[in-house]
Amino acid sequence: MRVLADTNLFIKFSRRLPLPKAVEQTLADPKTERCLSPVSVIELFRLWQNGQVPDNPDTWLDLALPSWRVLPVTAAIARQSVLFDWSHKDSADRLLAATAYVEDVELWHTDVTLKKLRGFPGRYFVNVTA
Amino acid sequence: MSIPTRAGGLQLSRASKSDVALRLPPQSKGAKRKGRSSSLNAEQVLGKVLPMKSISVPIGKARTNLCDLVEQAKAGVQVTITTHGRPAAVLGPVPAPSAPWRVEKADDPSRYGDLQKPVLEPWP
Fold it and tell me: CB A18 to CB B109 under 8 A?
């Protein structure tokens, strides 16, 4: 199975924070192809700078990344991120959705706004907090 | 390909039909006279010296034998494809899937803020 995790799921999985059971099991399965967008790396560091993530990602990101396939932001993805006909203005979400569309990989996310949007393969999960 | 050893070197060379042939250097006269011989055969020595079996194939032969080479790569052989006698590409086994890295001890969720908070500038 091939899954593109959003930033929230990537961080929570890597740091063993609470996750929906299906996400936990699928991402932990060695047979799963775990995909990640470089946009999530931007978001991770910005979240750390803003105090939402406590530990400097430089202390663990390089350990985590070999378990993930990083899908580069190609010209096709950049183009598609602009051409979605939604009003959603979060550029990170648009790039993640475009990556899912162009790479034909399901975007697993916990974003209620993305949940309402169409035009890309996606699967919404309730954000487990405890 | 020559691998230096105490015995004077192992040589890997391409044989006429097989992909790789192994030649051991001739034993010294002294060793023969005393009736000594190596307790390891050539394959055992090779297994100890090389971490992974590897072969070298010119691109023309690789093209005609690609299916066989892929089978060998799947079995763990590292196939170096050469152009004009120089290594150009390597065909090897796909690494077996392994469990992903995760922090050993779960973090305390209370140390984290809102991970879904937009962090990039919204489009105008």
Answer: yes
